[in-house]
Design goal:
- By secondary structure, the chain is an alpha+beta fold.
- It contains 16 helices and 20 strands.
- The chain has one domain: FAD/NAD(P)-binding domain, CATH 3.50.50.60.
- The strands form three sheets. Strands 1, 2, 3, 9, 10, 11, 12, 19 and 20 form a nine-stranded mixed sheet that branches. Strands 6-7-5-14-15-16-13-17-18 form a nine-stranded mixed sheet, with helices on both faces.
- It is globular and about 70 Å long.
- The termini are far apart.
- It is an enzyme of class 1 (oxidoreductase).
- It catalyses: (S)-malate + a quinone = a quinol + oxaloacetate.
- Pfam families: Mqo.
Length: 517
């Protein structure tokens, strides 16, 4: 049965007196975190019902400066065009495409929503947040070439991937990725694929643009430098949320009929504070990331692609190596990595006590089980942390043979907290995806996990609308509006080729992804 949230109150934001005589602000929706997820949900809800009273709180003094910031993530519009870990080879030698199709069509949903916002003037010109960047895969060695050829043959038969190109020809590959093919011996066994209309997304810029638009609308308020100290559900189903103001000091209270915990790595501790049954047993495994950043403009200008390779054995998905063209705040950059690391922080600007403080009696057994059963990952992380700068550049030379140590510097990216949850076959299971958790009564939702993250934000947030605003979604006005936002809503782009082709033609045009990069 669909869950419902209370209808919007007819009056502007107002205050009531709580039992402690502290001032409490009352809203319909409280968004915790000012990153890609919360801003997306805020935009969707405001499009569906402009009268909703929405408050967004952020622990930092700026919007989208943690995981969503351009320098803290790969910026890849994840569509499974180049990410080989989304198409694992099965025991019988076949390619499992289920995840690739799901991610591809989820990203198409995001593109549709962004296109609508651009058309309506709610977002600026597309190049302010998204740029065409071909998505390529590159492998070497007979076994890997065979895998990539098989992957291409499987995916390209489907309409979602019909524009994928494949080549083992050195001249063709040199045209697609000049740096990668420099000084390759003619006898080297290599292969690559390409989808020319892949994208580079500055999710930080996108989130900040959405917040700017939200701030221009009635009944929306952004509160920066606020830490959520406690969440307490009331008898009427609403939540009293206690905030600490880190800039001015003092305590504030917000009463909200719906709460979304979209705080990246900080979502798990907040979910534990909420103490809903659906969140029991969850733990987190933080993985940090580092990039090699090119310092020479003449090298940067020679590369225009996202080139993904094969992940090392035991590596988490966020550590699939890639040589990446980026456009961050209007400047073109070239990055290689990411190199994984380990800290006990859940956020880049978090505390080393984040992991120890997240351990509870209910998740201790799953976390110990994951630690025992993932020794490959542990060994991999240790090896990554211990690498020297020269060793990291050696890894880069697999993608750019002429790379010199002095042309690259190390930059620290954001934290990603992988999900640990109770398992069926083992006490605990380590998940590398993203997962939406909702309270049974629909009054609270949280998003945990990392990859593919912000690329599928619109699909993830629509699932929250379905779960937590189910009765409102049955209204004709919401049904009509949601199909304006996402024309493919409620239909399968995996099964309907005509639908996929139609919406893709529109989004490539509106977002200018069909122009020459």
């Amino acid at each position: 049965m669909p869950k419902a949230v209370f209808p919007a109150l007819p009056t502007p934001l107002f205050t009531i007196k709580w039992r402690t005589h502290m001032t409490t602000k009352t809203v319909d929706v409280l968004l915790v975190g000012a990153g890609a997820m919360s801003t997306t949900l805020g935009m969707i809800l405001k499009q569906l019902d402009p009268s909703l009273k929405i408050c967004m709180v952020e622990r930092l003094d700026h919007v989208a400066r943690e995981s969503t910031d351009g320098w803290n993530n790969a910026g890849t519009g994840h569509a499974a065009y180049c990410e080989l870990n989304y198409t694992p080879e099965q025991a019988d030698g076949s390619i499992n495409t289920n995840k690739a199709f799901a991610i591809n069509t989820s990203f198409e949903v995001s593109l549709q929503f962004w296109s609508y916002l651009v058309e309506q003037g709610n977002l600026p010109a597309p190049q302010e947040f998204i740029n065409p960047t071909p998505h390529s895969s590159f492998v070497w060695g007979e076994k890997n070439v065979e895998f990539l050829r098989k992957r291409y043959e499987t995916l390209s038969q489907h309409h979602c991937f019909k524009d994928m190109e494949y080549s083992e020809d050195h001249d063709t590959l040199r045209e697609w990725m000049p740096l990668v093919m420099k000084d390759r011996a003619p006898t080297d066994k290599v292969a690559g694929t390409r989808v020319r209309y892949g994208s580079d997304v500055n999710f930080g810029a996108l989130a900040r643009c959405m917040v700017m638009n939200l701030e221009q609308q009635d009944n929306f308020e952004l509160l920066l430098s606020r830490i959520v100290d406690d969440l307490d559900q009331q008898s009427d189903g609403s939540w009293n949320v206690k905030l600490k103001n880190t800039e001015k000091g003092g305590t504030e209270y917000i009463n909200s009929r719906f709460v979304f915990l979209g705080a990246g790595g900080g979502a798990l501790p907040l979910l534990q504070k909420a103490d809903i049954p659906e969140g029991k047993g969850y733990g987190g495994f933080p993985v940090s990331g580092m990039w090699l950043v090119c310092k020479r403009p003449e090298i940067i200008e020679q590369h225009q692609a996202k080139v993904y390779g094969m992940a090392p054995i035991g590596a988490p998905p966020m550590s699939v190596p890639h040589l990446d063209t980026r456009v961050i705040d209007g400047q073109k950059a070239l990055l290689f990595g990411p190199f994984a690391g380990f800290t006990t922080k859940f956020l880049k600007q978090g505390s080393f006590m984040d992991l120890p403080c997240s351990i509870r009696p209910g998740n201790l057994k799953p976390m110990l089980s994951v630690a025992k059963n993932n020794m490959d990952l542990t060994r991999y992380l240790i090896s990554e942390v211990m690498q020297s700068h020269s060793a990291r550049v050696d890894s880069l030379r697999n993608f750019f043979p002429e790379a010199k140590d002095e042309d690259w510097e190390l930059s620290y990216a954001g934290q990603r907290v992988q999900i640990i949850k109770p398992g069926t076959e083992t006490a605990g299971k380590l998940e590398f995806g993203t997962e939406v958790i909702t309270a049974q009564d629909g009054s609270l939702a949280a998003l945990l996990g990392a990859s593919p993250g912000a690329s599928t934000a619109v699909s993830a947030m629509l699932s929250i609308v379905e779960s937590c605003f189910g009765e409102r979604l049955q209204e004709d006005s919401w049904q009509q509006k949601i199909r304006e936002l996402v024309p493919s809503y409620g239909q399968s782009m995996i099964e309907d080729a005509e639908l996929l082709n139609r919406v893709r033609a529109r989004t490539l045009s509106v977002l200018e992804l069909d122009r020459q990069a």
